[in-house]
Specification:
- With 368 residues, the chain is of the alpha/beta class.
- 35% of the residues lie in helices and 18% in strands.
- The chain has ten helices and 14 strands.
- It has a six-stranded mixed sheet, sandwiched between helices. Strands 7-8 form a two-stranded antiparallel sheet. Strands 9-10 form a two-stranded antiparallel ribbon.
- Helix 2 packs antiparallel against helix 3, helix 4 runs parallel beside helix 5 and helix 9 packs antiparallel against helix 10.
- It is globular, with a radius of gyration of 22 Å.
- The model has no long low-confidence stretch (mean pLDDT 93).
């Protein structure tokens, strides 16, 4: 599952919730949260999105002890204050299933603001719905990524969870945290939410997340600690992890679940979209360029001079991103009018993503 291109210029939203979220003060990418709520507090039978800025708003709408409020607590503690929260409503009888999560994700899809999605579900079938949601939204000018948590008891089990997702837009976190009292959490959902918050707070899309220390008021350590050999096995198979140093938790490496190109049959191993920053940079470039061209050319005749101006503006903007060390070697290699519909311009460009430096190898030798 590669990261497909988005095409159309211009984003036009009629969503009140997204407008409210984007209007919040603060410096972070907006997040979307899909999680269960307290049925005694949230009694509305309709699934609706809510613009949330502080945890107290979540308490009053969803219940203080709800999973939704717990996720809001984590991300707001770290500084994220642009949230679109969509409740997952339990059926009248029985447990919440993939169906209820899909219904809430469909509501979130209609919002333009969220760039990063988290959920309270550790279940693999829900993670597939999250992947499908991110793919669909990203193909329709709503570039979106996700961080999810789960539970497993071995390296092979963790990698087995990542393999079917196989998306450059979804990160699975394998580190299960301890509470501040030293009790083991059931899964890595809360840690995934914390890592997603740091993703939202890092505005430079090419800046890696590794070596960020998670806030000490969140967790008391890690339940499952991995050796270097285990970490390499996790990363190579599309699973991200944290490390514990003297009781402090650090993000070790941010990778996505993408490990093979499944657009061909049979699928072939591939790691082009595995680093978490790849999708983030591509989304930044696509959306930024789209908005830039929409601003510069809102009312333009489809003439040859106008087409040349579009090419020039595209080149200049991409060069600006290269100067910021977000991309390298940008190239606008073709622009043309569509032969059968001359009102359409097609701009073709490519670039290299600036990847994170995750390892410095030392080859020192003592000469005596």
């Amino acid at each position: 599952m590669t990261i497909k291109d988005t095409q159309r210029v211009g984003v036009f939203s009629e969503s009140i919730v997204s407008k409210e979220v984007m209007g919040f003060p603060g410096t972070c990418w907006p997040m979307g949260i899909v999680a269960q709520v307290d049925k005694e507090i949230y009694k509305d039978a309709e699934i609706k999105p809510f613009a949330i800025q502080v945890k107290e708003d979540a308490y009053s709408k969803f219940g203080k002890d709800s999973e939704m409020s717990k996720l809001v607590e984590i991300v707001t503690l770290l500084g994220v204050n642009r949230l679109v929260c969509v409740p997952v409503i339990a059926p009248a009888e029985g447990e919440v299933t993939r169906t209820e999560y899909k219904a809430s994700l469909d509501v979130l899809y209609n919002e333009d603001a969220p760039k990063i999605v988290i959920t309270d579900s550790p279940n693999a079938d829900v993670h597939m719905e999250v992947r499908n949601h991110c793919d669909k939204a990203s193909l329709n000018r709503k570039e979106r990524r996700a961080h999810v948590g789960a539970t497993a008891d071995s390296i092979s089990a963790w990698t087995g969870l990542a393999k079917p997702i196989n998306s450059g837009r979804v990160t699975l976190w394998s580190s299960i945290p301890l509470s501040l009292e030293g009790e083991t959490h059931n899964d890595s959902v809360y840690l995934a939410a914390a890592c997603a918050a740091y993703d939202a707070l890092e505005l430079d899309p090419a800046m890696p997340l590794h070596n960020i220390q998670l806030h000490p008021d969140l967790f008391g350590g890690l339940y499952n600690r991995f050796d270097d050999e285990d970490l390499e096995a996790l990363y190579g198979n599309g699973v991200a992890a944290c490390r514990n140093i003297n009781g402090r938790i650090y993000i070790d490496r941010w990778v996505t679940t993408y490990t093979e190109d499944d657009t061909v049959n049979p699928s072939v191993p591939d790691d082009k979209y595995q680093e978490g920053t790849v999708a983030k940079v591509k989304d930044f470039i696509d959306e930024g360029l789209r908005n830039r061209l929409s601003t510069l050319h809102p009312r333009v005749k489809a003439s040859i001079p106008a087409m040349n101006e579009v090419k020039s503006d595209t080149t200049n903007w991409l060069m600006e991103q290269a100067e910021k060390e977000i991309i390298e070697e940008p190239n606008v290699y073709k622009i043309e009018r569509q032969a059968d519909k001359r009102t359409r311009f097609h701009v073709y460009y490519n670039y290299k993503v600036v990847l994170p430096l995750n390892t410095i190898f030392l080859h020192g030798k003592a000469l005596v």
